[in-house]
Design a protein that fits this description.
Helices cover 29% and strands 36% of the residues. The chain is α+β, with helices and mostly antiparallel strands and 178 residues long. Helix 4 packs across helix 5. It has a single domain (8-173), classed as Gamma-glutamyl cyclotransferase-like (Hypothetical upf0131 protein ytfp, Roll). The protein has helices spanning 15-18, 77-88, 129-138, 146-159, 165-175, and strands at 8-12, 26-43, 54-72, 94-102, 108-116, 140-141, 144-145. The strands form 2 sheets. Strands 1-3-2-4-5 form a 5-stranded mixed β-barrel. The protein has a two-stranded antiparallel ribbon with strand order 6-7.
Length: 178
């Protein structure tokens, strides 16, 4: 099936999977190759503050990421991009890219994705597990508590049949008393 030429695919790998916030006409599991889901972004707005950052997901180089692709109809593309830029680019920590994602039916479609900007000061890179847990436990921002974000993403992935070992370990660790 061919998509109308003006439609847009959006790749979600974190909260976009369970709370896209934009209209779409198709939703599908999708794989993005060359990037993996990582708790590598210090959140100064949505799940933390500049004084006490939280930690959120980014697409970081290497590996593959199982997420969700949403097809946005042509008439909603402009508004969706505006919405996503406001939501995802509050501190310009992501690079907006169109990357090929593979759908279960074998199609490969270009999808708008937000990739971690390794040069941005909020890029945390790979942290020690104990540091990840401590940061997540203490993060609170305008979109809520950081542990809720991690737990919701983990639970959504489980519902999709996707096992993410790091998110499982972090979710288990934040469920226990510090």
């Amino acid at each position: 099936m061919m998509e109308p030429s003006g439609d847009l695919w959006v790749f979600g790998y974190g909260s976009l999977m369970w709370r896209p916030g934009f209209p779409f006409v198709e939703q599908s599991h999708a794989h993005l190759f060359g990037y993996h889901r990582a708790l590598c972004i210090r959140s100064h707005v949505h799940r933390g503050t500049p004084e006490r950052p939280g930690l959120v997901l980014g697409l970081d180089r290497g590996g593959r990421c199982h997420g969700v692709a949403f097809r946005v109809p042509d008439g909603e593309v402009e508004a969706t991009i505006r919405y996503l830029r406001e939501r995802e680019q509050a501190t310009a920590v992501y690079l907006e890219r169109h990357l090929p994602v593979r759908l279960p039916d074998g199609r490969t479609v270009p999808a708008l994705a937000y990739v971690a900007d390794r040069k941005h000061p909020q890029y945390a890179g790979r942290l020690a597990f104990e540091d990840v847990v401590q940061i997540v436990r203490g993060g609170r921002g305008i979109s809520g508590e950081n542990p809720d974000y991690v737990r919701s993403t983990y639970e959504h992935l489980l519902g999709m049949g996707v096992v993410d070992p790091l998110l499982r370990q972090v979710t288990e660790a934040i469920a226990t008393a510090p």
